[in-house]
Amino acid sequence: MHIDAIARAAKVRLMIFDVDGVLTDGGLQFGEEGVVIKRFHVHDGLGIRLLQESGVQTAIITARQSPIVTRRATDLGIHFVQQGVHNKSDALNRLLKQTGLTADVCGFAGDDIIDLPALMRVGFAVSVPNGHPEVKSRVHFVTQDSGGMGAVRNICDFILRAQGNYDKALAPYLGNG
After folding, report:
1. CA triplet 154, 106, 110: central angle to 5 degrees?
2. Which residues contact 25 (CB under 8 A, 6 or more apart)?
3. Residues 146-171: pLDDT tens digits?
4. How far apart are the C-alpha atoms of 93 and 145, rounded to whole Å?
5. How far is Cα 20 from Cα 27, in angstroms, rounded to an integer?
6. For residue range 82-115, what is the model confidence (pLDDT) as tens digits?
7. Percent helix, strand and coil across the chain, each to the nearest 5
């Protein structure tokens, strides 16, 4: 673990996630009627919940528009969701205005060049191992697991550890809370 990434993660008060390639594996499956089907990893969902319970807010900014993303966000208690966004820097500005936070206490997880404008502004920038090389070369942390395969859980656990909240988050599951 890079010491700078730990220090940056320790300051995160809002973690923002891209969807395709981060919360999912980036593949798009189409049903018979043309509806896009997305697959999410359950470990990521619990990681987001643990992060929220520790006091870190969560958000989604994604270029695609999908009712399944709305459903997943609702299921996970993610209140800040912006879909159909092609200028992620503008979306970040709207989110900062909504929350009253500054970019230096935000994290953003993305995987492709459309994410760079937001990634380059936040205090904690994250990508996935299967992310675009231009993205991976500009972030503070690259997850161990790929997008849609537990990458978001890696991010959540990393932030929880950096903020000294990991053991507290696990305690109820170990019979200590």
Report:
1. 55
2. 39, 146, 147, 148, 149
3. 999 999 999 999 999 999 999 999 99
4. 29
5. 7
6. 999 999 999 999 999 999 999 999 999 999 999 9
7. 45, 15, 40
